[in-house]
Amino acid sequence: MELTWKGKLEWLVMAGFLYIINAHVSEGGITSSFLRSYNYSLDMPLDSDVFRVPPGYNAPQQVHITQGDHLGKGVIVSWITQDEPGSSTVVYWAQDSQLKLQADGFFVTYNYFNYTSGYIHHCTIENLEFDTQYFYEVGIGFTTREFWFKTPPPVGPDVPYTFGLIGDLGQTYDSNTTLTHYEKSPAKGETVLYVGDLSYADDYPFHDNIRWDTWGRFTERVAAYQPWIWTAGNHEIDFAPELGETRPFKPYTARYHVPFQASHSTSPLWYSIKRASAYIIVMSAYSAIGKYTPQYKWLENEFAKVNRKETPWLIVLMHSPIYSSYVAHYMEGETVRVMYERWFVKYKVDVVFAGHVHAYERSERVSNIAYNIVNGLCKTMNDQSAPIYITIGDGGNIEGLATAMTEPQPKYSAFREASFGHGILDIKNRSHAYFSWNRNQDGCAVEADSIWLNNRYYWTHSDEASLSELRHHEKVKQLAEA
User: Fold this and answer.
1) Which of 7, 180, 345, 477 has its CA 20 to 30 A from that of 186?
2) pTM of this prediction?
3) Residues 398-418: pLDDT tens digits?
4) Cβ–Cβ contacts within 10 Å for residue 187, how many?
5) How far is CA 217 from its chain centroid?
6) Catalytic residue, candidates 24, 181, 235, 329
């Protein structure tokens, strides 16, 4: 069984604590009654301190890292120099070593309408040691900048690991709150799973790419120190033939490199990685998804080759949710669901994270794979082989919250709330993981929803005792931190 809000309530009542659930229960699940003061969120002005350009001539800026291979022993370091190319070399060393090594990269530039980018550097560091802290330097002369990261533990079935979940962030005042809460969270992840829609530059006239630069500087404070696993959203398409821009995803693919070739993908828009005990598959909801397309053929092979004895946690990232009860973007993910939901069920995907809808929602384990166009079987059914679907497109962008919900709440919807926030996925072992959604409220992150995830491949009813022990340990830790 999954530990839901009811399990949390029982535990706190037994512990003698008063726990008030600010929600109402419908036939479908919980619709939170938390009322966020609704002010339309505006982008921070260009002179905000979070957009500050690093001092010095041609200083590296917009530094960010992501995984650089399939196993987690590589890191792609990316940054921009604005005035001239400078150096594409990264100097790096292990924490306890005096030996400094270097890796050489390359740079690219692009033009978009009336904008010309700076020099975008990408450098892959390979053959790193697992579970090791590394320091690295980019830049030359007096403008060298130093950062650090930690590699993951070796891949294995019982390796604990914590991921942060952020989507649709943008660069508003609410975006800044979300990123700050994630930074300060006691349970902060070691890697961010980012479910698409980054800068929202395309919301500006002529797709003002200066807003790509400000977003890169804004997120550097986290993205330079831990990998962000990128997913492309609709705001990354940047298809604007009226501006003469007919190549989709041009700014995104120039700025954010991913290790797609390591998983034998033919596009940076869909790929996979292993990290600790998780196998993460990134899909592109805005690329061709039909049968025989490159993404279809890659996914067909990819799901079949996942070894759950090595990486028991199978996680899918995409931008557009396939189960959502909000009015905004309702049913937009239906084509993806029709094509791929049967694979999610067949291969027992544990959880699918999506963004796009600017709110939070968690589903029950449901599927609708029996339906075809003539049989009329178009209602979802409980399916313990199906993933839980979590929509977390609530980073805080300029378009504001999605507040309108379909009524009555569908049976597949377990919990929904129109607030900004972020998520934490804390994998404990091969059978159990703890997911929490943290609302931005009152100057701090508030855990507003949580659930224990039982791995679809490993979990059995005989694990109930270990689940009970984990639940107790987690609550004791939370109360101690409070």
Assistant:
1) 7
2) 0.90
3) 999 999 999 999 999 999 999
4) 19
5) 19
6) 329
